[in-house]
Amino acid sequence: MTDSSQMEKWNAVLRNDASYNDQFYYAVKTTGIFCRPSCKSRPPNHDNIAYFDTADQAKSAGFRPCKRCKPTRERMPDDEWIAAATAYVDHHYMNVLSLEALAEALHGSPYHLHRTFKRVKQLTPVAYIQQVRIEAAQRLLLDTDLTVSDIGARVGLPNTPYFITLFKKKTNQTPASYRKDHPKTNGEMLE
């Protein structure tokens, strides 16, 4: 693909230009989702995009259809959408993550994501984000000598008092007492 062709496609994505629908599809590598050029979701980082001539090519490359613009004219099954959500959280938990940001990344509404996530996983998206962050914090507490505040920042909870409160709520221990009560594991989690 020439640079001008790629630039034309990128500009169509930025403008949500429906006249390019069915001429190409774009996929977002960080979310694993592909869309029509007219999709109203927030434009992704240009470096994270791949272009495909057909929806089948995007699906064959492992991308799932967007729930917002329905590029295959069918909905992605809810379990696949939630699998994409959990994979996104698993890889981005250390960043600022809210229900709204997660829904935007997955091309859905916050309300629909919350309702579907809870039905499929039996917990809310925010509870899942917290669970992933606390599990990562437990690993860091056991495998590093980082301070509690440094660990909180690394797992996406830079407010140390909030991190300690959430950690205690989820584990019944403060981070310091958790570290003290559990020996170093060399990478293995203790239950």
UniProtKB/TrEMBL annotation:
GO terms for molecular function: DNA-binding transcription factor activity; methyltransferase activity; sequence-specific DNA binding; zinc ion binding. Its cofactor is Zn(2+). Signal peptide: none annotated. The keyword Transcription regulation applies. It holds the Pfam family HTH_18. Keywords: Activator, DNA damage, DNA repair, DNA-binding, Metal-binding, Methyltransferase, Transcription, Transcription regulation, Transferase, Zinc. This is AraC family transcriptional regulator of adaptative response / methylphosphotriester-DNA alkyltransferase methyltransferase.
